[in-house]
Amino acid sequence: MEEDDVSIREQNFHSQVREYIICFLLFAVLYIVSYCIITRYKRRSDDHEDEDAVVNRISLYLCTFTLAVSGGAVFLLPFSIISNEILLSFPKNYYIQWLNGSLIHGLWNLVSLFSNLCLFVLMPFAYFFLESEGFAGSKKGIRARILETFVMLFLLALLILGIVWVASALIDNDAASMESLYDLWEFYLPYLYSCISLMGGLLLLMCTPVGLSRMFTVMGQLLVKPTILEDLDEQIYCIHLQEEALQRRLNGSSSHAYTRENFTHQLNKELDNVKNQRNKLERRKKASGWEKNLLYPIVMLILLTGTTISVLMVALNILYLLVDETAMPKGSTERGIGNTSLSTFGVAQAVLEIILMFYLMVSSVVGFYSLRVFEGLTPRKDDTTMTTIIGCCVSILVLSSALPVMSRTLGITRFDLLGDFGRFNWLGNIYIVLSYNMLFAVVTTLCLVRKFTSAVREELLKALGLDKLQLSNSPTDPESGKLSANGHQKTL
Fold first, then answer.
1. Which candidate, 107, 61, 126, 123, places its Cα nearest to that of 419?
2. Residue 413 predicted with pLDDT over 60
3. Inter-CA distances, 477 with 257, 345, 458, 481, 486, Å
4. 430: helix, coil or strand?
5. How many CB atoms lie within 10 A of CB 353?
6. What whole-number distance in Å separates Cα of residue 136 and Cα of residue 147?
């Protein structure tokens, strides 16, 4: 009997060690990738002083950790779905026994814990530490900045806890709710993270439809469009004339110093725009036939198909919500991993769900940076400050943490939320969930209709040659080589 107990303890020990090693390896890969991404965009001039270099380095490590957690939150649900299907397909395979329910549950709980840690501790610490200078009268240095950062974090924690306490007391005024107000670990953190998840879901509701329509423009800029009723040689010739005219004006400009400086700056800006247009036209001319006539339509068709399938799945989920209460994303943990498939068509539907989830995540990020409110957070290669990087990491963390919840709420997947992801109170409200689905379907459809109608209108104007009528509103007139009324100066 004792030998059996020892054997069971050894198996549990080896299982836990194996899970720790797998989690560490997965996180190490995400951390390395995140570090490469951040250092690609981080401004090089931030490391010019010793003290600031240390502060920037610490903030960089914290941002890298946060971005790695965001990547874990993005890959968590697809990893769980594909693991469930693998265990169902090969239940007796010895080499995949490490892929069990304990590992999946542990990953969900770790991602939830680290998301809270990054959102409420590490990122505020990185921001305050970056902006701190030490209290007035104290000796300057790292210790003074750390002390000021901890004081600011303490005051921020008191402010947030006070807001949550007042909000909870106003919403739930019964005796049980009043007693739970003094429970920090079991009430405050889940309730606060539920509110953050709701905000992330609303942010995804704004960003994803915009991103789904914006993806067509982004891919159109990366790929070469087919040439339909266009004469590229004539356009390149006009661009060359326009470039030569601007170059002559730039070389022969002679005025007062202040006027010449402003005028030269405007001409240089116009010349850069013309050169970019010329490079794009030359790239379109040099592109091969399959790249222009085959690759672009295929990519556009894939994007349109993915968006259409997403909207149709959301529409079906709305019908399920109206007729079946089990469609609510309440987050059940009773169903184990590898016991039953949550996809009607098995592995094929699981793969489709994973592709749609990644597509929605990429679209949400594109839509986030396309909104005017968040355009200032757009990272630039080798020219992004640490403050902007912190804002980007927090935004991506909120979006990625809400992605599993949004996917389950919209019916993209039927995989039940595990761990603390399933403890959100608002997931059990039929009115919130139904309104969320309807808004997503309606807004996405409107964005797509507006996108395609404007694209068709522009192509028709270009095909008929009516787009040249807009040249009078442009800063430069290519036929006369003069700046128009929107420019600073005209010359005869």
1. 107
2. yes
3. 25, 59, 20, 6, 11
4. helix
5. 22
6. 12
Residue 373's pLDDT band, with cuts at 50, 70 and 90, is confident
pLDDT score of 485:
36
Closest alpha carbon to 354 in 19, 79, 165, 155: 79
Q: How far is CA 490 from CA 240, 270, 384, 477, in A?
A: 20, 14, 37, 11
On the CB side of 268, how many CA atoms lie within 13 Å of its CA?
6
Q: CA quadruple 327, 404, 340, 15: dihedral positive or negative?
A: negative
* Core vs surface per residue 421-458: b (16+ CB within 10 A) or e: bbbbebbeeeeebbebbeebbebbbebbeebeeeeeee
492: tokens are 């005869």
Q: Kindly indicate the confidence band of residue 328, based on its pLDDT and cuts at 50, 70 and 90.
A: confident
According to the 3-state scheme, what is the secondary structure of 5-23? HHHHHHHHHHHHHHHHHHH
Q: Which amino acid is at 108?
A: W
Q: What is the pTM of this model?
A: 0.77
Q: Exposure of 248 by Cβ count < 10 A (0-12 exposed, 13-18 middle, 19+ buried)?
A: exposed
Burial group, residue 80, by CB count within 10 angstroms (0-12, 13-18, 19+): buried
Query: Which regions of 425-490 does DSSP assign to beta strands (E)?
Result: 476-477, 482-483
Cross-strand partners of 215: none
Percent of the chain residues topping a pLDDT of 90: 7
What is the residue type of 160? I
In the structure encoding, which two tokens stand for residue 51, read together? 């003290």
- pLDDT tens for residues 264-285? 667 777 777 777 767 776 666 6
424-441 pLDDT, tens digit each: 666 667 888 888 888 888
Alpha carbon distance 266, 270 (integer Å):
6
